[in-house]
Amino acid sequence: MVLTVTDPARDKILELRAQEDEPDSLGLRIEVTGVQGVEYTYDLTFDPISAADPTVGDLVDDQGGLPVIIPVDSLDALRGATLDLPTTNGQQGLVLRNPNRPDPLSGAHIELSGSVEDKVRQLLDGQINPSLAMHGGFAGLDRVEDDKVYVTMGGGCQGCAVSAMTLREGIARSIKEAIPEVSEVIDTTDHELGENPYYT
């Protein structure tokens, strides 16, 4: 199962679907539409079940009488997610709890040359820092020792609650994928310091 709909959420969705024309022909379509900050953005609609195309990989999953339609392009991003009702009193709508996060550093590929230190600097300057700059932060090379790279984050990333996760999951992966001779990327940032971090 890619995505789980809790019983209370399913009951609420079925109640809403019952108000539509030909409700039995409709499924709940859940699609990842983009990225906002460190989260995905989603679109939830009632669509005809017949509009899903299993031949291209679209998923139609029956959950207690509620067909859930997930387009093939959204499957990986939604794997392990849970659709639920809010736990906060007075909050309306649905809550999608997703353990997955978009990679803010994906999509750019640049040619690297020179020593390991040269390649890391080129990758930071050409791919990683332009992405981090959108959040008021940057990553700098502290040093290279053997096959280990030490990176420090600054600006809005210093003291940021998610910067350690960004380094571990995004920057470290990008560096190791682009420069195979690097075995480990170590965060040397003092996250106790820093003024006005972006995420507070």
Low-confidence stretches: 194-200
Decide which structural class fits the backbone.
alpha/beta
Shape estimate: elongated
Number of strands: 10
Strand order across the biggest sheet?
3-2-5-4
- Which CATH architecture of the largest domain? Sandwich
Relevant CATH superfamily of the largest domain: HesB-like domain
Q: Radius of gyration in whole Å, from Cα? A: 21 Å
Distance between the termini: 35 Å
> What would the average pLDDT be, to the nearest integer?
82
Name of the level-1 CATH class of the largest domain = Mainly Beta
Number of helices: 4
Task: Determine the strand fraction and express it as a percent band.
Answer: 25-35%
List keywords for this structure.
single chain; about 200 residues; alpha/beta; Hypothetical Protein Aq_1857, Chain: A; GMP Synthetase, Chain A, domain 3; 4-stranded mixed beta sheet; 3-stranded mixed beta sheet; 4 helices; about 30% strand; elongated; disordered C terminus
Walk me through the structure:
- This protein is an alpha/beta fold and 200 residues long.
- The protein has two domains: 3-97, HesB-like domain (Hypothetical Protein Aq_1857, Chain: A, Sandwich); 116-187, Fe-S cluster assembly (FSCA) (GMP Synthetase, Chain A, domain 3, 2-Layer Sandwich), CATH 3.30.300.
- Helices cover 24% and strands 31% of the residues.
- It contains four helices and ten strands.
- It has helices at residues 7-17, 75-78, 116-133, 163-178; strands spanning 3-5, 26-36, 39-48, 59-63, 66-70, 81-84, 95-97, 137-145, 148-155, 184-187.
- A four-stranded mixed sheet has the order 3-2-5-4. A three-stranded mixed sheet has the order 1-6-7.
- The protein is elongated.
- It starts with a strand and ends in a 13-residue tail after the last strand.
- Residues 194-200 have low confidence and may be disordered.
